[in-house]
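Duplicate of #3305? Posting structure anyway:
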């Protein structure tokens, strides 16, 4: 008697069940298709928001890391509703889910400074001003320096030359078409503090 082979094209393994070999039968059972190697994104369709949320969380001793999609700022992307409020970021949804605070007009602050963290113990509610104050206190505020500063008149090359120039401020200022106070500010290190 002929031994039956798997019905999947170019597979010569013996049939286990439903015309499929062991490998393709297991894939069908796990992923819904004998050709799939991972679960299809539609597998979450119809699940409650809370169940979908937990599928995206990796719990560790510290941060609970969001393992699914993230936005350009590194925050987890997740769309879910609690009551009539829709959340679009995973950390905001987590905070609302665990505290019941729907964050009307408020932001969520991370004590761990990890935008992918959704651990409610690392999250707190605050205003935009609280968030900015936290950012400055933790040294995450990048202030443009040198040529990148919006009010820069001189280039870095010019500033370095001026620092070495021993002439009076007014002479240097007339050469670069700037005020003498600009030269004084540079030489006294009020401006261009980033130069050695």
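Output from current build:
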């Amino acid at each position: 008697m002929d031994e039956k082979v798997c019905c999947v094209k170019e597979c010569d393994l013996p049939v286990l069940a439903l015309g499929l070999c062991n490998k393709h039968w297991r894939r069908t059972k796990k992923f819904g298709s004998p050709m799939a190697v991972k679960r299809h994104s539609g597998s979450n369709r119809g699940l409650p928001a809370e169940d979908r949320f937990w599928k995206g969380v990796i719990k560790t001793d510290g941060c609970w890391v969001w393992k699914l999609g993230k936005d350009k700022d590194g925050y987890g992307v997740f769309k879910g509703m609690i009551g009539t409020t829709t959340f679009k970021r995973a950390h905001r949804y987590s905070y609302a889910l665990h505290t019941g605070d729907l964050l009307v007009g408020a932001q969520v602050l991370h004590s761990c400074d990890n935008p992918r963290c959704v651990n409610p113990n690392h999250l707190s509610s605050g205003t935009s001003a609280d968030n900015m104050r936290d950012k400055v206190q933790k040294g995450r505020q990048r202030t443009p320096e040198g040529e990148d500063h919006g009010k820069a008149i001189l280039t870095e090359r010019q500033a370095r030359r001026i620092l070495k120039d021993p002439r009076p401020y007014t002479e240097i200022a007339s050469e670069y078409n700037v005020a003498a106070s600009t030269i004084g500010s540079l030489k006294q290190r009020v401006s261009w503090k980033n130069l050695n």
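Confirmed duplicate; merging threads. The CA atoms of residues 60 and 119 lie 9 Å apart. The chain has a mean pLDDT of 87.
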